[in-house]
Amino acid sequence: MATSSTLVAVLAAGAGSRFTGAAHKLASPLGTDTVLARSLAAAIAADVGPVVVVTGSTTPALPTTVTTLANPDWAAGMATSLQVAISHARAIGATRLLVGLGDQPFVTPAAWRAVANTTAPIAVATYDGVRGNPVLLDAATWDAMPQAGDEGARAVMRAHPEWVAEVPCSGTAFDVDTIEDLERARQMLDERTDTWISDTNSK
């Protein structure tokens, strides 16, 4: 259900302080791409709306097909990046915001599309019954979102379970936080290459 009323936001503003590699975790190589490039590629391939990337601690090189939104308050937590995305969504007249994270390179285009194809006020991807990303936020929920901190929409989902629909998805919301996570992601990529390439290139 591709529609310009949906803005897709990939949050990529954090410092990644737990990561001890030579580069920022999002810029670290994963296969032929970086962690962020793989995460972003899935959001773009899903083709559900214009894509923005919220940046902060670093300014990564991004495709010209996406819009970069700088978050000067990134150190105050992920919720500030969510607020940057919400402000942009309002500015362009979007009525829904579909949010994912730049450090989750195995969320598939199919997962982005499945969550987008819902009508609940909030829809959240689940993987084997565990909530993850992406998360869809209808405009009616935006005023309830926190202004700061690292919870994003989770606190609102706890406070308003009646707003939330869970969407079972394939793939995994595995995130890269440490150098050990990156090594595990590289192993996972070796195990998943054929499926991942096929899904990434599908529309």
Give an account of the 3D structure:
By secondary structure, this protein is an alpha/beta fold. The chain has one domain: Spore Coat Polysaccharide Biosynthesis Protein SpsA, Chain A, CATH 3.90.550. Helices cover 31% and strands 23% of the residues. It has a seven-stranded mixed β-sheet with strand order 5-4-1-6-8-7-9, with helices on both faces. Strands 2-3 form a two-stranded antiparallel ribbon. The longest helix is centred in the last third of the chain and has 22 residues. The chain starts with 5 loop residues before the first strand and ends with a helix.
CATH top level is Alpha Beta
Q: What is the 3D shape? A: globular
CATH H-level superfamily title: Spore Coat Polysaccharide Biosynthesis Protein SpsA, Chain A
Largest sheet: 7 strands, mixed
